[in-house]
Amino acid sequence: MSVFVILKLIGSLALLMYGMKTMSEALQKLTGGHLRHVLGAMTTNRFTGLLTGTFVTASVQSSTATTVMTVSFVNAGLLTLGQAISVIMGANIGTTVTAWIMSVFGFQIDMNNLIFPLFALAVPLAFSSKSQKKSFGEFVFGFAFMFLGLTTLRENALQMDLEHNAAVINFITSCKEWGGLSILLFLLIGGIITMCAQSSAAVMAITLILCSSGVLDLYLGIALVMGENIGTTVTSNIAALTANAQARRAALAHFIFNMFGVCWILCIFHTFVDMVSGVVDSIFPGVSPEVAITYKLSAFHTAFNICNVLILIWFIKPIEKVVCWVIKPKEDEEEFRLRFISSGMLSTAELSIVQARKEINLFAERTHRMFGMVRDLLNTANENDFNKLFSRIEKYENISDNMELEIANYLNQVSEGRLSSESKLQIRAMLREVTEIESIGDSCYNLARTINRKRQTNQDFTEKQYEHIKLMMKLTDDALEQMIVVVERSEHQSAVVNKSFNIENEINNYRNQLKNQNILDVNNKEYDYQMGVYYMDIIAECEKLGDYVVNVVEASSDVREKKAS
Cα angle vertex 431, ends 425, 436, to 5°? Predict the structure, then answer.
């Protein structure tokens, strides 16, 4: 086998994978927004979650897209672990549609006469200014590329004449003599190839071609398919590496689901394969052997996943307990999730508003905690401790951005329902609160960055500067504490609100005083100009943070005043 032939095979495989990727991404552009909504909303129980996972995966032609999307939803707290497990089970069924498409179109129909007309159709669509037409053109491109790759791969495999290659025949013959070990070997090979290629569809295509050309028999081909089912779980586990414990648990549940299926199917391997083979022969009696074996592989893939789901759909809770036992949350990790906003179809608008209010209260508490970290950062001398704390503040800032987005999306979703004028006012005020609280998180991060820049100069503030900064931060901290009191109070009290305004006045007056004093101190050479800049950046950012606090208080108190009147 020459190097050129191997390169042609790799190129054909790359073309197939590129086509699958392009087609899947185009389908996600066409339907992604709706499918994300479906995935987040239609998972109220294990059966709707199962159907949702099946539907979404069949629609976007990618179990990887569904599992990665599911992991991200769990990471954001929009899906519970139990709901995610049911969606992933459905994704395993939905992904079998890809094998049927390749079996029917790639082996039963001669696609050579259709591939290039499809390219001709895709070109004007792909250059369209309308996004829907452009995405559809990309889908047609991907579809054509996929079958061009599949056809080229098949032609190259036939030219290699592997079924008459002495080395290949001897290897497969010797493997068959090992009995059950040969199945395990090919299962392992299928898993490794899928892990390397990061595409179960590509491995499925290779298996279909090898079996249809007579290189592999049905049993060894199915062993490769089972290995592909295990190898494909690596993608979701990789996606979950940087996520929280719940997301990593969802990815592990995907692995457990597929591994369990492979284990029980191995116990009745030949019986199950013969049963599927018999059903296919009875349904497609006049089909040629090379096409029939591709149908048998696809049918096994579907039957295997459906049977596995029928068994495990009743054991979601035990699976959840197992993955929770295996993967323990890191310290403080569980707090980086939405706690009160649950996914699923929205209940009554009033209850939804209550859930959002609790989440906003928690959001305010987290930003207060973040400001506490900034105060600690100012007093941290050890470099390792400083870097860890700074990284933690960065993480909180990212969480703050995500929380704003998720709460705002939830409130927008609630606002689409039938609401009273009072509820509409509440939602408007809550949206403003969320925006301002996120701005507080941004200010905290800006303070941390200024402290970090000051540290890198190897210079330090004077003792008097530290005293002024600490006093300003104390006033700011008082303002945040008072903001939380206002936000969490169900009834408006003018005295409580006025206290927030009084603290803000103190902050403004103190900022003005320090601004004037800073000019005098720099002129008197008490510290250099650059340290004066860092010093006033911190003071000014604290004052700006205080403004955001007042905006939250105003938004929270205004709606209650209107409610009371």
Answer: 125
What is the rounded average pLDDT of the residues 437-458? 91
Secondary structure letter of residue 130 according to DSSP: S
Among 57-66, 186-195, 214-223, 277-286, the range scoring the smallest mean pLDDT is 57-66
CA distance 477 to 471: 10
For residue 539 the two structure tokens come to 């003071």
The 10s digit of each residue's pLDDT in 38-90 is 655 555 667 777 777 787 777 665 666 666 666 656 655 556 777 788 888 88
What is the dihedral sign for C-alpha 334, 335, 338, 341? positive
Contact 228, 191 (CB under 8 A): yes
Tokens of 349: 């608008």
Give CA torsion, residues 432, 438, 440, 443, to 10 deg: -130
Give the number of C-alpha atoms closer than 13 A to the C-alpha of residue 467, restricted to the C-beta side: 3
Secondary structure (3-state) at 328: coil
C-alpha–C-alpha distance, residues 137 and 150, integer Å: 20
Q: DSSP readout, 268-279? A: THHHHHHHHHHH
**How far are the Cα atoms of 6, 153, 207, 234 from residue 159, in angstroms, in the given order?**
12, 10, 17, 33
Alpha helices (H) in 335-420, listed in sequence order: 349-378, 383-415
Lowest-confidence pick of 283-297, 433-447, 500-514: 283-297
| Paired tokens of 451 | 């402290």
Separation of alpha carbons 245 and 324, rounded Å: 8
pLDDT in tens, 138-187: 878 877 877 777 777 767 666 665 555 566 666 666 666 676 787 888 88
Q: How many alpha carbons lie under 13 Å from residue 157 in its C-beta half-sphere?
A: 23
- Round to whole Å and give the CA distance between 323 and 317: 10
What is the pLDDT at residue 345?
A: 34
Place of tokens 């995405």: 135
- Look up residue 127 and give its DSSP letter: T
Is the Cβ–Cβ distance between 101 and 139 less than 8 Å?
no
Stretch 381-406: mean pLDDT, rounded?
88
Q: Which residues of 342-380 are buried (b: 16+ CB within 10 A; e: fewer)?
A: bbbebeebeebbebbbebbebbbbbbbebbebbbebbeb
